[in-house]
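<purpose> Linking amino acid order to shape
<body> The protein record starts here
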Amino acid sequence: MFVLGIDGGGTKTIGVLCDHHGRVYSRAVVGPTNPNSLGYDRVETEIQKLLDSIREQTPDCFAKVTSFFAGMSGGDREEDKRRMSGLFQQYLPKGCQVQVDHDAVNALYSGTLGKPGVVHISGTGSITFGIRAQNIRTRVGGWGFLLGDPGSGYSIGHRAVKAIFDEFDGIGEKTILTSFILNHFHLGHVPGLIPIIYDMKKAREILASLSRFVFLAAEQGDHVAKQILYKAGQEMAMSIRALILKLHQDEPNHETIPVVLAGGIFHKADWFVPVIEEILQFDHLQTKLILPELPPVAGSVIAALQQAGVNITDSFIHSFKQEAS
């Protein structure tokens, strides 16, 4: 049996053709595919490139694909799911089962292996998403950088720049973030940052990229940087806590709830895990934090296999990890 999974993001889109044993036969990467920011014409162009590439690599396997799942950034509204499903069906084998969902499902399943649970994603932006039994689901956050994206790379970078200006104005602590970030932009004075951070077409990505200097400064003992990361951990934890209470407010959950921590910010998870564990203390609920060993696109493959009625085994996980490495 062959399935195809897609992880469609705001930066890039990855597709993998795989069998039920976890063997990867073809893989392709194209540009972003979020219809909210690009429009459907541009999205269709990228999707066609992706699926053409996968088909050309292994045409015989592609022709036998029976189940397809795409977790797409901007794919949470039912109208978007229907439209995206129709777009994909044009390029897939006849009779293939097609499902489109939010890209948070990919990240969740990469940690829970297709089981219900909660995922908090912190990359450039952030969102907390959860599914419980009977496919009941909800979300917290993910409303975009203008509303804060708490615990995200953008939020961390934004606080770093704010700390630099606070030091410059004499109302904040000294911080080595100032020298790190000024040197990065080859600047000699703090006000020189203004035209860079107010380039509204790039501001979100620029500020998010500065989060790496916060980790570097914190590792060198900078108090301001450590406080920024602690605050980010608190924000992550409060989002997760709020989602768990929303998701299970009308039925106490007697099983441990898996909480997947996904996204680039968690490459430095040690800065956040202690505060998250501290805040995720409930009287009647137990949680378990998971740092996924599989990439998000593996979550889309798992969803495609589940749609076809296939159980996920340890051998699948082992094989996929080897193929993806």
